[in-house]
């Protein structure tokens, strides 16, 4: 009951590289298997971006994906998380070997994922077509950069007077009758919420007490923070930040809507008793499918700062993830690129709250991944929700 009430509250609160290419002679050789319609396996974005000999980043999505239906029979979240993580990890380790060997032989830089059985590479049309001919490859999907339209952060204004402390909680929180639920003793205690966004300013006085990596005296960011920005240019957090950092302000705002409370009357969070962890998946609002998937993979099984997914611990996974971003097909994001990762979180017992987008004021205007996946509209399970 406690968890169910909290999940409903969170839904209401969220209103809101790669490079070298091998010889063309070797690449053009037939990879093997029966003839296939290569064009049908390569996303239009990849075709367009690799025209005239250009290179582009794209995913090799393997044909052999994991059946996670067995997780439904397990009783606890820990059991589900361990089952899902191990099944996905083992599948990627056994099925990616042949393709990884081919990529190494042809000098193609690459990065493996396991939450989706896929490999990210950067290559030419020739590379994409050679891989698409393989029977163990289901499709080739792009990794475009997506510009999310985020509110501009307000400019700081210096003042000689002390800011006025709000006399009451924020109107949006009061509107949902959250204080009535708090009075019953349900404040989100025992729950961890993960924010995937522009990062978080963990030292903010309304967030610091609720950060899972803060014990009141010392900070430990291992298993509590990950930065998926490895090639940003000019953002204030740099790349691979070793501690939570927000390069735009949006992520601090969204996680504040979930847990924010400074203990002095400034209550803007729906669940002030919950803890939070974070992952930066946007570079000042610019995301990519690879960044989104990397954060989902981290949340499925968090690992230490500067660590690797093979150190992931699914028992440290959050209960809920908050995702105020979209990956529109109109900008080259394939419809199914993120779906397996979203469904893996659901199978692991992680509720994924996602943005419905800012377009349209009527019904049937939710149109961008991950908001329209079937799992995102599954009230009986309450694993997924869209806002």
Describe the structure.
There is one protein chain. By secondary structure, this protein is of the alpha/beta class. It has two domains: 2-16 and 167-386, Peptidase S8/S53 domain (Rossmann fold, 3-Layer(aba) Sandwich); 24-143, no CATH class. Helix content is 27%, strand content 14%. The protein has twelve helices and 13 strands. It has a six-stranded parallel beta sheet with strand order 7-8-6-11-12-13, with helices on both faces. It starts with a helix and ends with a strand. The relative contact order is 0.16.
Task: Sum this structure up briefly.
This protein is α/β, with parallel strands linked by helices and 387 residues long. Helix content is 27%, strand content 14%. α11 (289-300) runs parallel beside α12 (339-347).
Query: Could you say how many structural domains there are in total?
Result: 2
Task: Please give the radius of gyration in angstroms.
Answer: 22 Å
Strand order of the largest sheet: 7-8-6-11-12-13
Please give the largest β-sheet. 6 strands, parallel
Q: By helix and strand content, what is the structural category? A: alpha/beta
Question: What descriptors fit this protein?
Answer:
387 residues, 6-stranded parallel β-sheet, 27% helix, globular, alpha/beta, 2 domains, single chain, Rossmann fold, 12 helices, 13 strands
